[in-house]
Specification:
Elements: H1 6-73, H2 78-85, H3 92-104, E1 114-120, H4 124-127, E2 139-148, E3 160-168
Helix pairs in contact: 1-3
Length: about 170
């Protein structure tokens, strides 16, 4: 019959406690690591979403600039511009541009872009310039509003939009 000394029994129970404590440390370390990985995955998802939104904003700006450039090189009188490019009259120029916008931006069918024109007359004090002075003619303010809804977004919410305003003589 062997008799165990109290010192040997204390060493064994201390080893068991140490093993249990090491297991607890490993579990806590795994928990901290898992939380870190989940945080990184969330950051990655946000970065991808923001990159997509930036692409849509730049596409909308490029398309609005393209329409302004098309108007600039053509006949720039108000009647012609309204007939061809106004969203109210939906002329040929507007329809061609709308096809490009629809193919480049999501959700445009639910939120069609608008193109409006306003004539800005010169100030009355400047309109009566002396003979030989500059001829002041009215200018046009063109407002282009492009709206879109990114995929996966609720279409009932407010869409993203870009408003571009330019003045043309």
């Amino acid at each position: 019959m062997t008799h165990k000394t109290p010192i040997a029994t204390a060493r064994r129970s201390g080893t068991r406690r140490a093993r249990g404590f090491m297991m607890l440390e490993v579990l806590v370390a795994l928990l901290v690591f898992a939380l870190g990985v989940l945080g990184l995955v969330g950051l990655q998802a946000t970065a991808v979403k923001q990159a997509g939104q930036a692409k849509h904003r730049s596409d909308a700006a490029l398309l609005a600039n393209e329409l302004i450039g098309t108007m600039w090189v053509g006949n720039r009188n108000l009647a012609n511009l309204q007939t061809n490019y106004s969203s109210a009259t939906q002329g040929n120029g507007y329809k061609l541009w709308l096809e490009k916008v629809s193919s480049a931006l999501p959700g445009v069918d639910a939120y069609p872009p608008t193109v409006t024109f306003a004539q800005i007359n010169p100030l009355p004090a400047l309109a009566g310039t002396p003979a030989g002075g500059p001829v002041l003619t009215p200018s046009l303010r063109i407002t282009i509003t492009v709206k879109w809804a990114a995929p996966g977004e609720n279409l009932g919410s407010n869409p993203h939009n870009l408003v571009m305003i330019t003045q043309m003589k």
